[in-house]
Design goal:
3 strands, alpha+beta
Length: about 140
């Protein structure tokens, strides 16, 4: 990657629209570009919303559809994101959540091997439940004496 100059960028955040200038680096072979500040701010290539907003956008889109979510975000927090941007963000958040759930489920259902025994599970029954007084036979014998 080689420096390709300083370029302007506009993104939407919880505090409103933010305009900034950042250094862009370009690959001479494939002509792809990267801006380290964009990555630090949580904005990918082609994205208009930084990482502080996706959950809010996805929640709104799941509740009311993409066009209504766009209008709701503009009215409630002053973020103007089109219906297509709301759709893209909602799908990204949904895919990330699905992947997270699948990883957790795979770890939970992973087979147990002799090298890595299953975690110990403490079984309890009704006599193991603390109830504020001692129910052991010794305590009962002493109570009547």
């Amino acid at each position: 990657m080689r420096p390709a100059g300083v370029q302007p960028r506009r993104i939407k955040t919880l505090q409103g629209e933010l305009a900034y200038r950042r250094t862009v680096h370009e690959c001479p072979a494939c002509r792809s570009s990267r801006a380290p500040l964009d990555a630090e701010m949580g904005v990918g290539s082609g994205q208009q919303i930084n990482r502080s907003l996706p959950r809010k956008v996805a929640w709104s889109a799941a509740r009311m559809g993409f066009a209504d979510a766009s209008a709701n975000l503009a009215e409630m927090i002053g973020v103007h994101a089109g219906a297509a941007e709301c759709q893209r963000v909602a799908l990204d958040v949904g895919e990330a959540f699905d992947a997270h759930q699948r990883r957790e489920e795979a770890a939970r259902l992973a087979p147990v091997s002799p090298e890595q025994p299953a975690p110990e599970i403490q079984a309890t029954n009704s006599t193991d439940i603390p109830n504020g007084y001692d129910e052991t036979p010794r305590a009962r014998a002493g109570a009547g004496a």
